[in-house]
From TrEMBL:
Organism: Mesonia hippocampi
GO cellular component: membrane
The protein's name: Putative colanic acid biosynthesis UDP-glucose lipid carrier transferase
GO molecular function terms attached to this record: phosphotransferase activity, for other substituted phosphate groups
Family the UniProt entry places it in: Belongs to the bacterial sugar transferase family.
Length: 451
């Protein structure tokens, strides 16, 4: 019976568990509990941590995992674990500690946990790159463009720890024999098999799967001719029948939806109370002094599920009948002097925090277009409507990636849609925070297309 090749993760995961729990136990000294209660607290949080970690997949970190995912997982873990710690002092009221001391405990503990986790992650990368350890031997079956691209990645990105032994071109004819490839895999003790979907018949595919299962080899596929396979699909079971959904949208998850809404409410409340409350009267005077018309400009736009809503902005143009039909262009004569400053600094968008508070919008999401433009793009631009699976945002990934302001060519809107779809398929709270900081930085620096 073939043996599965040894993996460092067998030892790394238990070590990581022990280090993290050790940090929590040491930091628990902040609570100055009697020894018997300290032991009870340690048992309680150890149990809670183990269950939570298994459920959240906190230790399912692999060599190809992105750092942003590690950080977002840690933030999510910290949020839920904080509730577990608070619940301990809620159950044992006689041991009650102040919220400040609990939050200090969480801050110190998770700062160390994240530091250790990232240190181990980067040390392993350097170990693989410079010492050649902790590697996986691979073979690529197929000679397509994507297969060659993967081989190039294995060769250049040595910090990931993959050693590609061979790339084999195969024929899709039934006469082609997989047996020599199987013998090579066994003789060279290959750990992982990567194969091209486009160059395998169903019969060959089943043979390869059977071989991998029977010999404890990891089998992975390169989606090089079926675009649908390159999507971030979700696998469900209807009874015992496997069903693939076209895409998985993280914000369809109730918990993720709650986190995003709580973040939106907190930030919009802060902006409304501490910024708009004093900024609006000042801007109202300046806007009124320069031109007649209302202080706020409202415009119908399409949001979640294509529903229409009124989007609010500070008025930056003279009152004109074309405001809801024609987008502002460079050196647009309709824009007032005050309006140019508002647009250049993106301050005209600030009233949209009212939309966020009301629930029409989110702080981060696909930018909503005026209704007339939405109808036009929906008919012209492929996948444009996908953006409406989630709430629109004041800012978005497309805007921070250089696609804000006037749509000059179809390339602009196509690129914008591409970034918006990536965002809705890969949402995380950390990504939202990153986009917000990038937006503030761009506003302070000034943007070429902000007019």
């Amino acid at each position: 019976m073939p043996k599965r090749p040894g993996r460092y993760s067998i030892y790394l995961k238990p070590i990581s568990y022990l280090i993290d729990l050790g940090i929590f136990f040491v930091m628990a000294a902040l609570f100055k509990l009697p020894i018997e209660n300290y032991i009870g607290f340690c048992v309680y949080i150890a149990t809670g941590w183990m269950i939570l970690s298994i459920k959240s997949g906190y230790y399912e970190i692999y060599r190809y995992t992105q750092v942003v995912k590690i950080i977002s997982l840690t933030l999510l873990q910290a949020l839920i674990f904080c509730l577990i710690v608070f619940s301990f002092f809620g159950i044992f009221e006689e041991l009650n500690r102040s919220a400040k001391s609990v939050l200090q405990y969480m801050l110190y503990s998770f700062s160390l946990v994240l530091l250790v986790k990232l240190s181990m992650f980067y040390l392993l990368k350097r170990y693989r790159k410079h010492l050649g350890g902790n590697y996986r031997t691979t073979i690529i079956i197929g000679d397509t463009f994507q297969a060659r691209k993967l081989a190039g990645f294995f060769e250049k990105a040595t910090e990931y720890g993959y050693q590609c032994k061979k790339t084999i071109a195969i024929s899709t004819t039934e006469k082609f024999k997989l047996k020599p490839i199987f013998n090579y895999i066994l003789d060279e003790n290959i750990d992982e098999i990567y194969c091209s979907i486009s160059q395998l018949s169903n019969k060959q595919l089943n043979k390869l799967i059977d071989f991998s299962d029977n010999n404890l080899k990891t089998l992975k596929f390169i989606p090089d001719n079926k675009d649908v396979y390159s999507r971030k699909m979700k696998l469900d079971y209807y009874g015992y029948q496997p069903i693939l959904s076209l895409r998985e949208i993280p914000l369809n998850d109730p918990f993720n939806k709650f986190i995003k809404r709580a973040f939106d409410l907190a930030l919009s409340t802060f902006v409304i109370v501490f910024i708009l409350s004093w900024l609006t009267p000042i801007l109202a005077i300046l806007i009124k002094l320069e031109s007649k018309g209302p202080v706020f400009f409202r415009q119908k736009r399409n949001g979640l599920d294509y529903q229409e809503f009124f989007c609010y902005k500070y008025r930056s143009m003279q009152d004109n009948p074309e405001a809801n039909l024609i987008q502002a262009t460079k050196n647009d004569t309709r824009v007032t002097k005050v309006g140019r400053i508002l647009r250049k600094t993106s301050m005209d968008e600030l009233p949209q925090f009212i939309n966020v508070f009301l629930g029409n919008m989110s702080v981060v999401g696909p930018r909503p277009h005026m209704v007339s433009h939405t109808h036009m793009y929906a008919n012209r631009i492929d996948k444009f409507m996908v953006r409406h699976f989630i709430k629109p945002g004041i800012t978005g990934l497309a805007q921070t990636s250089g696609y804000r302001g006037e749509v000059e060519t179809d390339h602009d809107i196509i690129s914008r849609v591409r970034y918006d779809i990536f965002y809705l398929e890969n949402w995380s709270l950390l990504l939202d925070i990153k986009i917000i900081f990038q937006t503030v930085y761009n506003a302070v620096r000034g943007e070429e297309k902000a007019y």
